[in-house]
Amino acid sequence: MSTPSLVTQDLTIRFGGHVAVNQVSCAFHPGELTVIVGPNGAGKTTYFNLISGQLTATSGSVTKDGTDITRMSPSARARHGIGRAFQLTNLFPQLTVLENIRLAVQARAGDGWRMLRPVSSFRGLTAKAEHYLEATRLTPLAHQKAANLPHGDQRKLEVALLMAMEPDIYMFDEPTAGMSLDHAPDVLDLIHQIKADPTKTVLLVEHKMDVVRALADRIIVLHNGELLADGPPAEVMGSQIVRDVYLGTSEGAA
Fold first, then answer.
1. Which secondary-structure segment (H or E) carries 214?
2. What is 6-93+167-253's CATH topology?
3. What is the pLDDT of residue 111?
4. With 90 as the cut, is the pLDDT of residue 7 above it?
């Protein structure tokens, strides 16, 4: 097994008297796609928010490639190679598809905005942005405003923005939520492409079991903010305690 790219150790967050994530310890590795599942309210998105920095842990730690990033801001974590897509699309709606991706490329290059700047300096950024347009099959939509895209194409654009940031760790929170049957396979195919890169680590929160079976190398199950199961898909989904939790039986609740 390779050295972990990301480790959460006893990761915990409390909101008053409620413990939303309780001492979750997991190590994630390059070349591995881990799907995080669990009933509604299990703590899946909260766990994601602790990793990407939208929330700060009450206790425990998050480590990326041996560096403790527990107290880093979301932007600092992004610079350290953590890329996050949210349940709701997070785009610049009045900019074109190409302009959205070019901004991501520019941010990745650390090339800030300057008022007096020759147009020629944008050529390299634009060429790289066009590469990600082609990779995500968005080239025909390059000059459309993001706000005018169908929901499925907005999700594809969000994946393109993540790819343009060139993270080591990709985090997708229900990537096919609200998508039509026609668009969902396109986004799943893009995630397959990312997964095929042995240097990338992919984390996915997902409810749809067909998506889980199609993508997962590993499944972790959260329940009431605690790690209930962790292992290969067949082993985890065949576990009686996992079935109990999904069926809501008293045994699972216990």
1. helix 209-215
2. Rossmann fold (3.40.50)
3. 55
4. yes
